[in-house]
Amino acid sequence: MKSGAYRELMDKIDSIEQYVRTERAQKSVADEIWLDNAAVCTYLKVSRRTLQRYRSTGTLAYSLVGRKTYYKASEIKRLLEEKRVRRGEELPAND
Q1: CB 32, CB 72: distance < 8 Å
Q2: Residues forming beta bridges with residue 69, ordered by sequence position
Q3: Domain coordinates in residue numbering, the chain
Q4: What are the residue ranges of helices labelled H in the chain?
Q5: How far is CA 8 from CA 19, 20, 22, 87, in A?
Q6: What is the structure's pLDDT at 10?
Q7: Which of 14, 51, 67, 90 has the most beta carbons within 10 angstroms of its beta carbon?
């Protein structure tokens, strides 16, 4: 392999590495934010009882620290994405 081609290949690998590191850092910072009950209720516009039901049914993962409940921001995003209604789709029936 010629020296110019090798240098070009190494530059491309370096740019890919930089991209991966940047994307991973951006995702991990936002996904590692922990929210308490009050913040999640406000954000989702649900009552504390509804939030408790989400925990009880396994709809929303959570962590307990002492007597306080915390939720990862990524888990809230997952719930919102899972419950999102797209144009042309039917709303789920309440059973």
Answers
A1: yes
A2: 64
A3: 1-32, 33-82
A4: 3-31, 37-44, 48-57, 73-82
A5: 17, 19, 21, 46
A6: 85
A7: 51
Residue in 47, 70, 38 with CA at minimum distance from that of residue 61: 70
Least confident of 21-25, 50-54, 77-81, 90-94: 90-94
Contact between 44 and 78 under an 8 Å Cβ cutoff? The reply is no
Note the pTM of the prediction, 2 decimals.
Answer: 0.59
Name the β-bridge partners of 36.
70
Span 30-83, pLDDT tens digits = 567 899 999 999 999 999 999 999 999 999 999 999 999 999 998 999 898 888
Beta bridge pairs of residue 72? 34
Residue 57, classed as helix, strand or coil, is helix
Contact of 10 with 2, CB cutoff 8 Å: no
pLDDT exceeds 90 at position 29: no
